[in-house]
Amino acid sequence: MLSYDEMQFETGAVRRHYKRFCAWLDRQSGDNLARKRAEADLVFRRVGITFALGGDAGDVERLIPFDLIPRIIPSDEWELLQRGMAQRVRALNMFIHDVYHERHIVRAGVVPAEQVYTNAQYRPEMQDVDVPRDIYAHVAGVDIVKAGGDSGGTFHVLEDNLRVPSGVSYMLENRKMMMRLFPELFVQNRIAPVAHYPDLLLENLRSVAPMGVDDPTVVVLTPGIYNSAYFEHAFLAQQMGVELVQGSDLFVADNTVFMRTTRGPQRVDVIYRRLDDDFLDPLAFRADSALGVPGLLSVYRVGRVTLANAIGTGVADDKSIYPFVPDMIAFYLSEEPILQNVPTWQCRKPDELSHVLAHLPELVVKEVHGAGGYGMLVGPTASRAEIEAFRARLLARPHGYIAQPTLALSTCPTFVEQGVAPRHIDLRPFVLSGRNVAMVAGGLTRVALREGSLVVNSSQGGGTKDTWVLDSAEGAAEENVAC
After folding, report:
1. Distances from the Cα of 153 to the Cα of 39, 66, 113, 116, 183, angstroms
2. Cβ 242 vs Cβ 293: under 8 Å
3. Half-sphere exposure of 327 (CA within 13 A, CB side)
4. Which helix (H) or strand (E) holds 151?
5. 482 C-beta neighbours (distance < 10 Å), count
């Protein structure tokens, strides 16, 4: 299966937007790159940029591997991605509002009712609840892959992350690290900045404050230090200049949310929450939750506090809803999708299940509620026993799975033990919705560090790269120049 190489043509000629960087890379010794990588690991560990690896690993804290070689995107490609993601997130927000209000898309038969109203992420408590500006997914992480041969890869949306998407702190810290290690690269290349993301995020959150609140108090709500993304919660609160709180720091009185402070109670208007719906309010959801705020839902329902992202947003990022997003764009916006989905078989449909069962060794099969690279089958790399075990799961619970072709994800040069070698990547840009739709240029590039692996998730051993969006004037020389 031929993958699109982000830096080079099959002939070895360097793509225009990589030309200047490739010339720099050619002058670097392996020893120097190894020293720089060791320096990066030391700084990341000192700062505390770790990830809690749960499951069989026993909640081990470890660094997410950082690769020194950036993923570079020319400005014209980024402009296409930016328009496509803005279109997609607008349609998703309209869909979420619709399914909790008029239900036009269900009544029109575009999305089956059972796909929405039996979905584990659908929250009946949100029916007919109005939210500021009709925005539900204030922060969306849209996973993008580029697939295709040497002549030109094509961008596809792999999935939409609308509940509590994570990873933006690694995007920001990766850029800081690259500027620390290789300042000369930022003199030689015109690279779009990302450091203003916390300012954009705060502006976005303030723009969706409850009606009548002119100077809103914003907080970041974290489950606490044992959460795998706690570093990110603390980092974003610090960068925005707002309080990082846990559920025990907040309380409800007089139909208002307050924060306990040394100066007495302070009203809270916007909560950027980083815990799942189930744990937000023990009076409304899981009664055993010690992480949430009793009574929070009642304040939210009457519009006295904003939650970002909204309760019930997960109904639109379920993988069983993903196949319908192009239809949502057509239904709500009367537009053709700028970014295409990956072709998807819904195993709940008997004819599509038959196709999947007949082609398991060729497909990627995912749980509709799965995340983090868990609960999936990558057919071409699976053993016969793994395939047969998954076949049994599909037959037992077909409605719980979708399947997709195994894409030849694009590759990017990566510094591994053997030297510089291609590894498969994806991209997670972060889309902010409030008064406007905004995003910084780039996103978090994730890389599968094992040779041949297509699984980029950090929980599965993947790493990250800095992502550069390069000015279109860069690399104006001919494309067919070898590195």
Report:
1. 34, 25, 36, 33, 30
2. no
3. 13
4. none
5. 12
Q: Can you give the pLDDT at residue 479?
A: 42
* Annotated domain spans of the chain: 13-126+135-189+322-342+407-482, 345-404
How is residue 161 written in tokens?
């992350």
For 23-174, strand residue ranges (E) read 50-53, 60-63, 66-74, 139-147, 154-161
Of 267, 193, 272, which Cα lies nearest the Cα of 238?
A: 272
Which residues, at least 6 apart from 207, have a Cβ–Cβ distance to it below 8 Å?
A: 133, 434, 435, 436
Give the model's pLDDT for residue 407.
86
C-alpha Rg value of the chain to the nearest Å: 23
Tokens of 296: 């929070």
CA nearest neighbour of 122 among 103, 144, 107, 104: 103
Tens-digit pLDDT profile for residues 399-424: 999 999 988 899 999 999 889 999 99
In whole angstroms, give the CA distance from residue 442 to residue 470.
Answer: 10
Biggest CA pair distance of the chain: 70
In whole angstroms, how far apart are CA 420 and each of 22, 184, 288, 335, 466?
12, 20, 50, 42, 16
Asked if omega into 309 is within 30° of 0 (cis), the reply is yes
Three-class secondary structure of residue 375 per DSSP: coil
Tell me if the domain spanning 345-404 has CATH number 3.30.1490.270.
Answer: yes
pLDDT of residue 199: 98
Q: Which residues of the chain have pLDDT under 50?
A: 55-58, 475-482
**pLDDT tens digits, residue range 286-316?**
999 999 999 999 999 999 999 999 999 999 9
Can you tell me the distance from the alpha carbon of 247 to that of 144, in angstroms, rounded to the nearest whole number?
34
The answer to whether the CB of 159 falls within 8 A of the CB of 319 is yes
Could you tell me the sign of the dihedral formed by the alpha carbons of 90, 91, 92, 96, in that order? Answer: positive
Place of tokens 């980024």: 78
DSSP state of 285: S
What secondary structure, in 3-state letters, does 354-368 show? HHHHHCHHHEEEEEC
Report DSSP letters for 225-275, one per residue.
Answer: TTSTTHHHHHHHHHHHT-EEE-GGGEEEETTEEEE--TTS-EE--EEEE-S
Residue 80 φ/ψ, nearest 5 degrees: -65, -50
Buried b (16+ CB within 10 A) or exposed e, 299-326: bbbeebbbbbbbbbbbbbbbbbbbbbbb
Beta bridge partners of 64: none
